[in-house]
Amino acid sequence: MKFLKMKHMLLMFAIVVGMSACSEDSDPIPEVFTRFGFMYTDGGNYFIDIDGGEKLMVESFDDEGVELDAYDRVLATFSIKETPEETILYDYLVELKGFYDIDFSDIVTLDDDSRDTIGDGFITVTDMGISENYLNLQIFYAQQKGSHVFSLCYDATQQEDGEAVILDLYNYYPEEEEDGGANYYTYQTYDLSELSSLLELNEDNEIEFRIRVNKGDSQEKIYQVVYDPS
């Protein structure tokens, strides 16, 4: 059975549910976890540094077709096979059920040159969470021809006195290639560490900001976010 590198979140959920439902074998079903992290290779082994600081070493698997850059952002599904007595190299040996590649980027600061090129494709944020300094979004969108680019942007001209900073989430794709494809979910992660230079901490040492989607559309929506940078 070849290792599965999942391309859409619906596949991941179906596989996890399927594993949980298989109860014909007498052996207990191992608990399955899904975590965000960064995946890489070292000395011929695969490792995942999951958000929160723990390191996973991946049990040997058929990695045909798996392509990794130096340090790829992933959402991984796994079960724990072993906890070593000494955790110098890793905290857990795991069986990797699958993983989903996640686009990882910084917040974009817009200026006069970039403001009109960022895109205006419709999107829906279906899930949102923060782990360490990373904002993780699940996005629902209509697939068009060409590559979609989802950018979280800071625009000084959009800020209002007395209001929390607002960041706009944009969906760019080549307009000339639009053809109305199927709807998909995807995950995006944004590095929030630079927000501390744009904002001030509140009395609880937290950063408050807003995320807006579909700016100027009848389905515009604004999310209130509180972020602890410590």
From TrEMBL:
Keyword check for Signal: yes
Database matches in PROSITE patterns: PROKAR_LIPOPROTEIN
Superkingdom of origin organism: Bacteria
Residue ranges constituting the NigD-like C-terminal domain according to the UniProt record: 107-220
Signal peptide, first to last residue: 1-23
Keyword terms, alphabetized: Signal
Gene3D superfamilies cross-referenced by the UniProt entry: NigD-like, C-terminal beta sandwich domain
Protein name listed in UniProt: NigD-like protein
UniProt source species: Saccharicrinis fermentans DSM 9555 = JCM 21142
